[in-house]
Write a structure and sequence with these properties.
Layout (H helix, E strand, L loop, with lengths): L4 H9 L2 H17 L4 H7 L5 H17 L8 H8 L4 H18 L2 H23 L7
Length: about 140
């Protein structure tokens, strides 16, 4: 064991260029989405999207290609939005999975989706899990 199959196969096949094309297509869908598009529109003005996409590229490049370029705090950024609910994550993941399936062969798409679910679960746990509060 000792290796991570989600990145082993992806790093050998995924490139910065294919990742950039995927993220551009995915976030075009996200920005048009009725549920999550308005949340992003409040947080990121149209003129800010090129910079935001570059940050997202650095994040996913660090996660999938192990480049180490991303130095930010994704939890803090999502917490600052203040309006996120589990339904937002479900929609985001659905669009992510749809776009990955359209743009990559099934093995790469599955690895991307699995990693996105792990990251989403981690963010959701931090944002929504409140030990000691009523059930």
């Amino acid at each position: 064991m000792g290796h991570d199959p989600t990145t082993d196969g992806v790093a050998g096949s995924l490139t910065e260029a294919s990742l950039a094309a995927f993220l551009a297509a995915f976030y075009a869908k996200v920005r048009r989405d009725d549920l999550i598009g308005p949340v992003l529109a409040r947080a990121i003005p149209d003129a800010g999207w090129p910079v935001h996409l570059a940050v997202i590229q650095d994040f996913w490049s660090s996660v999938l290609l192990r480049t180490g370029r991303y130095k930010g705090n994704p939890f803090g950024k999502h917490l600052a939005l203040g309006t996120l609910e589990p339904a937002h994550f479900a929609r985001w993941l659905g669009l992510f999975e749809e776009t990955a399936g359209e743009m990559f062969e099934p093995g790469i798409a599955a690895a991307l989706v699995e990693r996105a679910h792990r990251i989403g679960d981690s963010l959701k746990a931090g944002l929504f899990f409140r030990p000691g509060e009523g059930t």
